[in-house]
Amino acid sequence: MEEVQKLHITPQSKTQKVRRNLNLQEKARLWAILDEEKETSKQDTLEKIYTIEETEFCTKCNQLLVYSEEGFPCCRNKNCGFMSQYTLDYSPEWRYFVNDQKANNPNTSRCGNPIDPLLEESSYACKIFCSNGSSNEMKNLRRWSKWHSMPHKEKMLHEEFQLIGTYATNSGIPKIFIDHAKVIYKDLYEQKNFRGMKRDAIRAACIWIACWQNGCPRTPNEIADVFHIDRNSASLGCSSAEQLLQSHERTMDPEDKLQLCALTPSSFIDRFSSKLELSQEQALLAKFVAAQVEKRQLIPDNRPQAIAAGILYLISIHCHLGYSKGDIKSRLGDEASEVTINKCFKKLNEMHKEILPSWVHKKYKKTDVKKI
Known about the structure:
- The protein is an all-alpha fold.
- It has three domains: 58 residues, no CATH class; 104 residues, Cyclin A, domain 1 (Orthogonal Bundle); 106 residues, Cyclin A, domain 1 (Orthogonal Bundle), CATH 1.10.472.10.
- The chain is 49% helix and 2% strand.
């Protein structure tokens, strides 16, 4: 029978830790266990840590590397063909500060609050949205947070940027054009030289310049339809904005100045073909004819949009589409008058055997143009 030593527990000693005195044998056993753990930890294989560095040469044969479609660096040497399984991710790690992104979530990113480079002093850390049925207190909170989040100057710019983005997005203009238009509007806004002009015309002019700089020119009439303003105001705003930018860029280098693309009939063929609901074959035929006109420099006296309208009317006659000059004028938004379309058509029809492919005459029967 083992003797069990009973301790006398007092109310003060309930929470006290009873220290046990170990003998020499128990201490030696504990030290032996500790030594065994140290030896086994030394024998374990260490985890290999690879340092990935961006290099242009293969680590096997020292040949140049090329990047595949998947983004992996591959060796150009046919005898080697080494492909690295590691890539450097250059994309940003965004964070939206939502409730599901906690400390234990591995998907949390390291980016800060969203910022706008055009609005340097503004903060987008917190926004309050209200519906029509919200209380007056919530509406006041939204107004106060908006006032304190950005200064008055940038608040006006922010409202203008929203209007430009709304009108342009509803008309199908790409986002890259919209961002470029915002940069142009900020440059014009900082000059403060467009007093007396309508702000709608300045917004339209910024979209007009952005489209021209990105190789997709639009006419002032098309931009006026986008912003629902008078066409005369749009034309005046486009010309004034171009002059202001050119005067502002006088001291810049030639490569940094405002450069607009060339205006050709091919610039309008795609949009005009879409408005006339032409098939893919007929749209390609219109592009081919426009390229022939540009290459041979035919009809230099008329505007490119009028020449494009004349090309479409030529295709409508020879392909029996049934569009009249009045239909083309109305569908294209009065870009050219019926008289101008008829003049361009007559000049093109005189050389239709040279600018139209041979399969057009074979596929479609000949049309008596004299009766038109």
